[in-house]
Structure formats: C-alpha cells, structure tokens
Amino acid sequence: MSVPISYWSRQSPKFGLRDLLNDKVYIDPSSELTDPRWGTTLSLIREELRGDESKALDFYCGAGRFTQDLAQLVDGDVLGVDTSLPLIHEATPSSGVRFIHIPDGRVPTPPRSMDLVLANHALGGLRGRLLDRAVGEIVRVLKSDGLLVLIENTADLPDTRQHVYRDVETYREMFPQMQWKRDAVHLENKSEGVEDAHRMSVLMGRMMGDDAG
C-alpha cells in the first residue's frame, strides 16, 4: 500500500526544508551530517557527465535543496518537480531553474527530453501504483544514453508505513533499460544517533537504445 501524497504534504509545513533520513529522523539542511556526502555525490555525477548536457530533471525535488547544484553541472535548464505543493512553494527559482507541482506524478515534458535525471530519495517512499508511475516517468523523459542518478537509503532496516528499505539490486531491477556505469557507491552516516538510520547508496547509469520511450 502506497503512502498517500497528502501525507508528505502534511509533513512539509512541519519540517520545512529539513532533510528526511528515514521516517523519524530529520536534520537541518545546513548540517554537516549530509553536506560532505552530497559533495561526494556531486563529484561522482560530475565524473560521469560528458559536457554537452543541457537539460536536467530533479525528480521529487522537495524544496529544491539540491536542484540549484544541478544547474551548476549542466549548461542549460534544470526542472524540479514534486507532488508536494507546500514544498514546491518553498523552492526558489533562479536563472535556468524552475519548479513545477505535479499532483498526479506526471512530468510535463516530452519523452526523451532530459540529458540527466536525479532521483534523490524519491523512490523509497513509494509503493505499488505510485512507484510504477514514478519509474515510468523517469524512463519516459530520459534521453537515449541519458544519465540517471538514483540516491536511496539502502539500510538493512524494517519497512515502515512511510518508507521501504530496498537493496541496490532491487532498484537496479526496476530499470532494465539502464546500463549501470559503475558499482553503487555507499556513503555511510557516521553521526551520533543516526548511524543505523541512513546508508546512502548512489547508483548511476545510462539509458540504452530505443527503450527510453
């Protein structure tokens, strides 16, 4: 059973721009808890870019915490989308960066329109029909040979109502269209009190052939 979108919309005013580690632990976006790991992730993404990327999608971007960083990686336009209207209202557009509310989970862009798609902790909170739609939209909008970056919590923990803890292979199997470029990179959380709550895994790969549409 999927968690209703309304649940996350209700959580947004409560936690604002803070980052969700699991269904219980939240941190401030300026905290050193995640900044080093996100910096490492940006370096990994930068290594995979070819230099001609002009359009990127931050899928389930929340309040746009990482969307602005994507704009520094691509020479063009970045779109952030989320099903939570309160979070989209908190996001700050800038030159080349815009945000759109997608209440039905459908991305308002043509097929094969994105050179890069970032799904940062987007799929762990989804099940069933909502998960299928999210995966389908990522596949639909990513260009042939476009780069997909998945970041998910793969900690070996029991599922909760709000979050499903899946392993790396399960996420890979959701995207048979992808040629994964490297082994997943696991960035452990060493901060006191949350060391068992968050094992961030970064998966990157490119869309194969004509399966992108």
UniProtKB/TrEMBL annotation:
BP GO terms, sorted? methylation
- What protein name is recorded for this chain? SAM-dependent methyltransferase
- Which residue range or ranges hold the Methyltransferase type domain? 57-150
Q: Does the keyword Phosphoprotein apply?
A: no
Taxonomic lineage from the root? Bacteria, Pseudomonadati, Planctomycetota, Phycisphaerae, Phycisphaerales
Give UniProt keywords alphabetically: Methyltransferase, Transferase
MF GO annotations: S-adenosylmethionine-dependent methyltransferase activity
Going by the entry's taxonomy, the superkingdom of the source organism is recorded as Bacteria
